[in-house]
Write a structure and sequence with these properties.
heterodimer; A: 478 residues; alpha/beta; ten-stranded mixed beta sheet; two-stranded antiparallel sheet; globular; B: 367 residues; mainly alpha
């Protein structure tokens, strides 16, 4: 068989099959998401979460919040986190060698005093400079750790070493967490019998344009500008459909770094967060799952569809590009670190479904799409394109994509209905129509740049400048 | 959505078929959008109606809560004509049931009894019973919850049968209902249950029982030897919660149970009911436990604070795991001067990590 015929066969059969499987997978995701969300909502409709708020039997939870140069907002953010409803709780803020006055502001605001604290190095980390606790009993739940800068993964590992509770909840310190978020997050760890819940994720929503007062979300609004609005739609699709569907079949590979709960014993047994990757959130979940599979311990990774965590989405193409570039590198690094699992039946659904799906349809999709575009341009130049067929296919695939987004909007309206004005829904529908032409090509291009940066061994996080909920400019990560 | 722009003439449907599919999808898309918009309008109307009904119910509920029975005729809570008429509407009825349940959960005494009185007077149990009869698990579970909160004891046999139901949530609601209706007596389902009781359910049951008298240590003693590990764990929690010192000797054998969770719970339980014999029993099993159980044992030994444990605890300062060293140091500090002397006499007390560990233990004690 000649190279030309192989190339031709690849395009004739390979890409067509790829597209069909991808479209079918979206259909299956939609179906599984409906089943899982319905089950969850029915169960939640008569669950009294307040039982846990006051129970001395409630499991201990340590919230780990790494902070780097968050001086502008840290005091309000910590105040917001301290107001979360949960009895057996400690809040550990890890100052990751901030260059600003982040630590001093915390010391002043919360009357902190350096204490004698032995930090057991269950996971190796950069040095801890000091541990602080408040002299005011009102803030007894707060622990502030000052450490040498080592990045988010290292800061979280220090938090794990310092924490005294059995479960850890890792969050971005600038996120807004709903007051009852921990009550809802703790439940899956408690109501599952027969298998161990090792991690649980919560839905992250976009807070741009929302009304925030004293670190609390007061009123939900749809973002005013296109880019955050497109991300709102993207998050609804990803969290309400994608992750709920994967959770249904216990095949979830990713829990957002912005808000996730973990069984600390398993996290430590796996060695904590890996600072050799910029996708430390996904890598940890994959490693924990791999650990449980290799130890042959029955386990689950669960997901909660309630909007529990609100975050500020990038509102400029520059920052969005950096974020997506990093996500791509993180995915590639994670999948290459755990390539042993790919199509390996010893890892069950993890090896036979989750990993191949991520490899083919999350990691490779932008590459396939980009390569397809280049080939199309070449074919067009050479006059090989059957234009009526081309536009029919293009229209078909665009209609499918937009329909999928509209279905996600329908699910949102039927479940949590956060954007309940008709005008908001029409704006979201319009965003769904525009997204394939503006937002999606940019995301694909950022992913391609992520691939290139990885080949060039560029492994920085990239500065994530944020507008801040109060409209101030702050630097989140470096 | 990913775009694949190349096609194979051999495999791809003809353009007109793709166009038909596209048109169908655009049609569905438009239908969904119209449906969403209509749904939002109807939902807003429904919410407005609910708000009106809620306003209407405020007066009824206030009159119910403050109703005083004159003791002559059978007590009847007066209702307005409007409320009586609205009761024909299923949505209003359900709202009233929900409000009565919320009220009943947060009130006690006569006010709570009056809410039950209104529930019975209006024959609302009929509608809760319909839910109980439903084949859909979430409706059945809701029915059980409503009947239990509104003290419909005449249905206890029906509900009791569901305490071992196949569906977990129905089973849990039935178990909670029986305990709500009969207090500690209701826990008799523990004698027969063959499924595990989740931690969530144990917390729920403990909370329900916390408000109720009539704990029977004899029955708990039986559950301490149950073949169902979760029943045994729950019994240990009951012993600890109610400080049932008389069951100490029945608790001790659980330290040798093969399941680590049972052993762990036994240690925690013994912290609440310890006697002079407790330390020896725990020291005996210490070496065979995992780190969590060892830490719990050290914690209990610290709480007991017996001088005889000093040597055992000071030996633990040389344990491999730093957390166990810290646990032993904390326990010794809790013993007072004698424990402090053990720390001072420890040959490596000036070296890392012991210096930091001892310092932390001392700081915690003075905090």
């Amino acid at each position: 068989m000649s190279i030309t015929s192989i190339f031709s066969a690849f395009f004739q059969y390979g890409l067509w099959l790829y597209s069909i499987v991808l479209l079918l997978s979206y259909l299956l995701i939609a179906i599984f998401a409906i089943i899982e969300i319905r089950r969850y909502l029915r169960s939640a409709s008569f669950t009294d979460y307040s039982i846990l708020a006051s129970s001395p039997q409630a499991p201990g939870i340590s919230i780990l919040a790494p902070a780097y140069n968050e001086g502008a907002t840290i005091v309000d953010n910590v105040r917001s986190l301290l107001s979360i409803h949960y009895r057996n709780l400690e809040l550990i803020v890890i100052n990751d060698g901030s260059k600003d006055d982040c630590l001093q502001k915390l010391i002043d605001a919360y009357h902190l005093k350096k204490i004698d604290f032995f930090v057991k190095r269950s996971i190796p980390t950069k040095d801890v400079r000091g541990v602080y606790k408040s002299t005011n009993p009102v803030f007894h739940k707060l622990i502030v750790v000052d450490k040498v800068n080592g990045g988010k993964a290292d800061a979280l590992n220090v938090g794990i070493n310092v924490s005294s509770k059995g479960y850890i909840v890792c969050i971005d310190v600038d996120c807004i967490i709903e007051q009852d978020a921990l009550l809802k997050m703790a439940k899956p760890f408690l109501d599952t019998t027969g298998s161990r819940v090792i991690a649980s994720g919560g839905v992250v929503r976009i807070a741009n344009s929302c009304e925030i007062r004293n670190g609390r979300l007061v009123k939900v609004h749809l973002p005013d500008t296109f880019l955050p609005r497109a991300q709102t739609l993207e998050y609804i699709r990803a969290f309400l459909l994608g992750r709920m569907a994967w959770s249904r079949i216990n095949a979830l590979l990713l829990i957002s770094g912005a808000f996730g709960a973990f069984d600390k014993e398993i996290v430590i047994a796996c060695g904590g967060y890996n600072h050799a990757t910029v996708g430390e959130d996904m890598e940890l979940v994959v490693r924990m799952r791999r650990y449980m599979e290799e130890k042959k311990i029955p386990y689950k990774v669960t997901y909660i569809p309630d909007p529990l965590c609100w975050t500020e989405a990038p509102s400029s193409y520059k920052i969005l590009g950096r974020q997506r570039n990093r996500w791509t590198r993180g995915t590639i690094e994670t999948l290459s670190m755990h390539k042993k699992m790919c199509l390996n039946p010893n890892y069950h659904i993890l090896g036979m479904l989750s990993y191949p799906y991520w490899l083919l349809f999350e990691l490779m999709a932008p590459l396939v799409e980009f390569a397809g575009l280049i080939c199309m341009l070449i074919a067009a130049l050479l006059g090989y394109i059957d234009w009526p067929m081309f536009f029919s296919l293009l229209g078909f695939i665009l209609s499918f994509g937009i329909l999928y987004s509209i279905f996600a909007i329908l699910m949102e309206v039927l479940t949590y209905n956060q954007y309940n004005k008709s005008s908001d829904i029409l704006k979201l529908v319009l965003t769904a129509i525009l997204e394939p032409f503006i937002f999606h090509p940019f995301v694909v291009w950022s992913a391609i740049r992520g691939n290139i940066d990885l080949l060039r061994k560029k492994n920085s996080w990239g500065e994530m400048s944020r507008q801040g909920f109060a409209g101030k400019k702050t630097n989140a990560n470096a | 959505m990913r775009l694949v722009l190349l096609y194979s003439p051999a495999l791809v449907p003809q353009p007109h078929l793709l166009l038909i599919a596209m048109a169908a999808m655009v049609g569905v898309l438009l239908l969904i959008t119209i449906f969403i918009l209509i749904y939002l309008v109807r939902r807003r109307k429904h919410e407005k109606k609910l708000e009106d009904w809620r306003d209407q119910l405020i007066g009824t509920l206030q009159r119910t809560i403050f109703f005083e029975d004159d003791g002559n005729a059978p007590a009847t809570i007066p209702l307005t004509f409007k409320t009586s008429r609205s009761l024909k509407h299923p949505g209003f009825r359900q709202l009233l049931i929900d409000e009565l349940i919320q009220g009943k959960k947060s009130l006690t005494g006569t006010a709570a009894a009056n809410l039950v009185l209104l529930f019975n007077q209006l024959g609302l149990s009929r509608f809760s019973l319909q839910k109980l009869n439903s084949r859909r698990w979430h409706i059945k579970a809701r029915g059980i919850q409503e009947l239990a909160v509104m003290e419909q004891r005449q249905l206890v046999t029906r509900i009791y049968r569901l305490t071992n139901a196949h569906h977990e949530l129905v089973r849990m609601e039935a178990q909670s209902a029986i305990v709500q209706l009969y207090g500690f007596e209701g826990l008799r389902f523990l004698d027969i249950i063959n499924t595990p009781i989740s931690e969530w359910q144990q917390i729920t049951l403990l909370r329900l029982l916390a408000r109720m008298p009539g704990i029977q240590p004899g029955k708990i003693a039986n559950w301490l030897s149950s073949g169902n590990d979760s029943v045994r764990i729950f019994a240990l929690k009951l012993v600890a919660e109610h400080h049932l010192h008389q069951l100490h000797d029945q608790v001790i054998p659980c330290l040798h149970h093969p399941h680590p969770d049972v052993r762990m719970q036994t240690v925690r339980c013994l912290k609440e009911i310890y006697t002079d014999a407790t330390s020896d029993a725990m020291i005996q099993i210490y070496a065979a436990q995992n780190i969590h159980c060892r830490l719990a044992i050290l914690d209990v030994l610290g709480a007991i604070g017996a001088p005889d444990n000093g040597i055992f605890l000071s030996q633990r300062l040389a344990e491999g795991d730093d957390l166990l060293k810290l646990g032993a140091a904390r326990a010794l500090i809790q013993m007072g001067d004698l424990g402090q002397k053990h720390l001072d006499d420890f040959p490596l007390s000036a070296e890392y990590p012991w210096n930091e560990i001892f310092q932390q233990a001392k700081t915690e004690q003075t905090a």
